[in-house]
Design goal:
The chain has 404 residues and is of the alpha+beta class. It is built from seven helices and 20 strands. A hairpin with a 2-residue loop joins strand 17 and strand 18. The chain is globular and about 65 Å long.
């Protein structure tokens, strides 16, 4: 009897002992993180990782910070976060901060001691000398998302709606290179008589991270709103995340893939271009955005928007005016319930990232632009240092209160 109890205790402790002997790289990989780099230089520790496990980058950042703190050997630690294999944001954790996190302490004073920056040019060269562990390339995500079209009707039918399921296959082929293939299936429809399913988007895109916080995205394929063509977008961050400027140029025509995956073309080529300036009030994660230029219907005008970020959720107000008229309204981006996905594999099934909906108070649909699929800068707000540090502080304080 005693031998059986002893054997059961040993079997319980074996996984814990194995986990303790794991290297930091292996621990991060065991939690599903990718593109991992771990090395030491001048008596300081350097860690790089990419998150494709947690829906919100702040949750991933908190988990990685815990793992590093538990593994801490008293070294100052540099952390570089990647997206599609490209570096995005950098943090420097003094050894005292990691010791406090390991002890379960949090608070504003601790967060103030963490240095952060989106200026990663010099650090990137240092990390590039080391091969990534657990690559994210050539892994396929099958994502299921949803979309709703609606219109206010009459007394007999107050709201007309059309609900779609949008499965999407996404893979990263190399540093910043993404392929997205999505299909559209009608689930509920009292909006119109179009009940057939067909491909929705088929896009190949390439992101580039330029020196001094510049970003370029180039995309080609079948885009949103039945547009086929190419699009080039340039973004530049100024004063970290306080300002960013954007220049956008696209050429497309009305075209789509029918239910037989045959291309249908119904218009001549159109070009459009616009520029934007964005200011962020970091204290409250509020963005003021002004955009001016041409849009999908060759209308010329501007768009004003005010948006508020709540970690991975957004609400916004907008007003648009062009030579075709004006429109105002609001919208939101809400996340779907699955906050933590299964570990990335060669093929993984999961829910889509979010659900988006806009409402026009008045006017026609003008100043429209189409989505060209996910991009590095399109996700940048979740990587802002202020957003990640607030998320870390919130979770550390919650963890500390649970311990108390």
């Amino acid at each position: 009897m005693v031998i059986k109890k002893l054997l059961s205790v040993v079997l319980m402790l074996l996984p814990l002992a194995f986990y303790a002997q794991q290297s930091l790289e292996e621990k991060l990989a065991s939690h599903g993180f990718e593109n991992i780099r771990v090395f030491s230089k001048d008596n300081e520790l350097y860690v790089g990782y990419e998150n494709n496990r947690y829906r919100f980058e702040g949750d991933a950042f908190y988990k990685v910070t815990q793992i590093i703190a538990d593994h801490s050997t008293g070294l100052n630690t540099h952390v570089l976060i990647y997206n599609t294999g490209l570096p995005v944001v950098y943090f420097n954790f003094p050894s005292k901060v990691l010791n406090d996190i390991k002890a379960g302490r949090g608070g504003p004073e601790l967060i103030d001691d963490i240095y952060s920056s989106l200026n990663i040019d010099a650090l990137e060269r240092l990390y590039n000398d080391h091969t990534a562990y657990n690559s994210s390339f050539f892994k396929f995500d099958f994502q299921l998302g949803f979309h709703l079209d609606y219109q206010l009707g009459n007394f007999d039918n107050g709201v007309k709606e059309k609900l779609y399921a949008r499965p999407n296959l996404q893979t990263v082929l190399g540093h910043g290179t993404q392929l997205n293939l999505s299909h559209q299936m009608v689930i509920i429809n009292d909006f119109n008589n179009q009940n057939y399913s067909r491909p929705y988007m088929a896009v190949l895109s390439q992101d580039y991270r330029l020196p001094y916080n510049g970003f370029i995205n180039a995309a080609i394929g079948f885009f949103e709103y039945n547009r086929f063509g190419y699009n080039i977008r340039f973004n530049k961050l100024l004063f970290e995340e306080v300002f960013y400027a954007e220049l956008n140029y696209g050429m497309s025509r009305y075209s789509y893939l029918d239910e037989n995956i045959s291309p249908i073309y119904r218009s001549s080529q159109q070009t459009f271009y616009n520029g934007a300036l964005n200011y962020r009030w970091r204290k409250h994660d509020i963005d003021f955005n002004f955009t001016y230029g041409t849009y999908m219907q060759n209308d010329l005008g501007y768009r004003l928007s005010l948006s508020r970020q709540f970690e991975d959720k957004f609400i916004h107000l907008f007003y648009k005016k062009t030579n075709l008229g004006y429109v105002g309204g609001f919208g939101f981006i809400a996340t779907l319930p699955q906050k933590k996905f299964s570990k990335p594999r060669r093929l993984r099934a999961r829910l889509g990232d979010d659900f988006r909906l806009n409402y026009n108070y008045f006017g026609n649909t003008i100043a429209r632009s189409y989505s060209t699929g996910p991009s590095l800068f399109g996700d940048i707000k979740e990587y802002y240092p202020s957003v990640l540090l607030k998320a870390l502080d919130k979770r550390l304080q919650k963890s500390s209160s649970n311990i108390d």
